[in-house]
Amino acid sequence: MVVDEGSFAAAARKVGRATSVVSYSIAKLEAQLGVSLFLRDKTRRPQLTEAGRTVLSKTRTIITDVVSLSAKVRGLSPVFEPEVIVALDGMLPSS
Q: How many structural domains is the chain composed of?
């Protein structure tokens, strides 16, 4: 969201959180991964590091795959109960 929106503040507004929460979440993710995702310099617009670009690319692929899988699973479950309709024409013998 930070990349798409162009800033931590804009991302925070988009997800309905405080900027500090978004910043903390990114810092926590960086600590867990052991890499810096954003360059921390004086620029106003966040810039991804090489690791950040890789993580973002893989994350978007995973999200796309999960959404696709969810759609396929929903397609497997019947929306309506199975139903069989039998019609009997009066011209046929009842036996």
A: 1
pTM here? 0.69
Q: Give yes or no for a contact between 38 and 2, defined as CB atoms under 8 angstroms apart.
A: yes
* CA distance readout (Å), 70 to 35, 43, 61, 62: 30, 39, 14, 12
Task: Express the helix, strand and coil content of the chain in percent, nearest 5 each.
Answer: 55, 5, 40
pLDDT in tens, the chain (95 residues): 999 999 999 999 999 999 999 999 999 999 999 999 999 877 678 899 999 999 999 999 999 999 999 888 877 776 666 677 777 767 666 66
Structural domain harbouring 69? 2-76
Q: What is the CATH number of the domain that holds 66?
A: 1.10.10.10
**Neighbour-count burial of 19, counting CB atoms closer than 10 A to its CB (0-12 exposed, 13-18 middle, 19+ buried):** middle
Whether 22 contacts 15, CB under 8 Å: yes
